[in-house]
Fold each of these.
Amino acid sequence: MTLLRLPTAAHPPMPLAARLFLALLRRIRHGHLTLTTPDGAQQVFGDARDVPAAALRIHDWRACRAILRAGDIGFAEALRAQWLDTPDLTALMRLAIRNEDAVATTLHGGPLARVWYALRHRLRRNTRAGSRRNIHAHYDLGNAFYAAWLDETMTYSSACFDDDAHRPLDEAQCAKYQRIIDTLALAPGMRVLEIGCGWGGFALYAARQGIHVRGVTISQEQHAWASERVNAAQLAHLAEIELRDYRDLCDVHDLHENDGQYDAIVSIEMFEAVGEAWWPTYFDTLSRLLKPGARALVQTITIDDAHVERYRTSSDFIREMIFPGGMLPGPQQFVRAAQQAQLEARAVFAFGRDYAQTLRLWRASFESRLDTLRALGFDDAFIRIWTLYFGYCEAAFDEGRTDVMHFVVQRCDGHPRADPRAHPH
């Protein structure tokens, strides 16, 4: 016989949102979750013998309402407020992805919240001014912030480990740069445009091989750091760093000076910040600035094509709290967008598991420098959100929900170059 325990001051009745949340967890079919409730009780959902295994502790039932309302965005808000925690964010995110069909609300939130956040995302349009605001919100957190946990190459994109998980991160980043150089058959004396040059990692690496690189960025912090690095290395004659929007590369003066003058174009994880409405402008810029027969290599994070439609018509934790204005393409989307600008795009390399390993190393470095980050003024709420960001992305790459790819792009024979000024700026 089961005794019914009446609500008391010590054990108040469970809120409706909590009951609904627990009902969703009972649908878990892959792996298992050990849940600790605010009163210290534990429940196991799923098969305790199955992996992945994850744990979640709810400190405040308000966390359940936040998750049901806004999915992963609500989870991030609850984590930031310390209404919940977990010993392994990556394991929890992997469990959620594996069980997405069963617990969709916990990932995507309710319909009203999806509409609201989709509208917020659309208002962060990547106009010239909007792009500056969006980039400032992420990259201009300060060079000291990124220098605290990135490797010495100051590279903030996926490394290439070539099946060697023990490879030092700086070596793996240089291996990625060399792969780009080899894929494009770059040689000393060639002239390369880099769209989105970050802190100058590729520009310096290529310049040391005698390749001329013109790098552009709209982050003031990145521009200052990259320029200083180039000057310190005495490579300013080979690596030029400009504070400039890629769309301004096709203004009248620049076209007169550089139209079709680049032997290659490189763009490493900048495409995610372009925004779908400006994809035609981006690809037309590649078309206009490449020499006849020349190629571009675009490294971009992609989202599984099967999930593109839900993704593009909503928002998520990453776009709300980390990368405002961001938009990942599906691989097929990327190819089709290039074709609309009379370009051929081919995926030549996919290395999502390497990104998961890159993120593991970034997270370990980040967590080892918490005292430094706090001294820079970043509080624990900010640190919790960034720790979630690392774990969230690591799980997505390990589970194949996202990938990172090298696309080689070139003009289709017989097609004239389109005018990028015909597209929205």
Amino acid sequence: MLLAIDVGNTNIVLGLYDGTGADATLLRDWRMRTDARMTADELALNVRGLLGEHADAITGVSVLSTVPALLRELRVMLGRYYSAAPKVIVEPGVRTGVPLLVDNPKEVGGDRVVNTLAAHHLYSTTCVVVDFGTTTNIDVISAKGEFLGGVFAPGIEISVDALAVRAAALRKVELVRPRTVIGKNTVECLQSGILYGFAGQVDGLVRRIVAELEQDDSGPITVIATGGLAPLVLAECTTIAHHVPDLTLLGLRLLFERNMR
């Protein structure tokens, strides 16, 4: 079984795959809080606890981390607890098959490369991937599977936290749809601004991106949402056609198989 580990700034997502290629199945996935101070032993304990009965069945590991401090600990954990399993870590030198058509390819995070690989595998069209995470990333992929660039914006949780810190009369609220767009109290006003504000931001950016792509005769364009916070605003976005919550895990599996050939 392949263990895919996606370490983000807010959460660590684990995915357990059985089989390879077209026969591969995502058996389970788990999510835990990211703590940049965790040691290799703490990581191993948490991972093993989540894997449960599958802990001793791991035959390969594919890892991505956007947190440098945890990447070091992940390397130690893999060497100490999964020494016999083949491993792929997303870093320079790993074969991705994704051309990076940007000014400085070294700036492109591994999560964006992996998402590009997975989106092209699923749809084989020009794609726009909206990743709702700590930041809201919008990545653009050509029909040939090339990474063309994208957009960064503050994420939902970052914005909510900033409001609570910078505005004395405001506080963190549950992120659910309010009764109406016009809020009748402070909580509903915040919920409306966050929910519909982010949906409007995403729709506006995606429409502008699609308009630019259409000028270049890019063919059919597929808009995909992923990321842990996507379900919060997905129903309010009019430009998103597909929700693929395990897009990054799929990319990690594809990357592992590509490098194990």
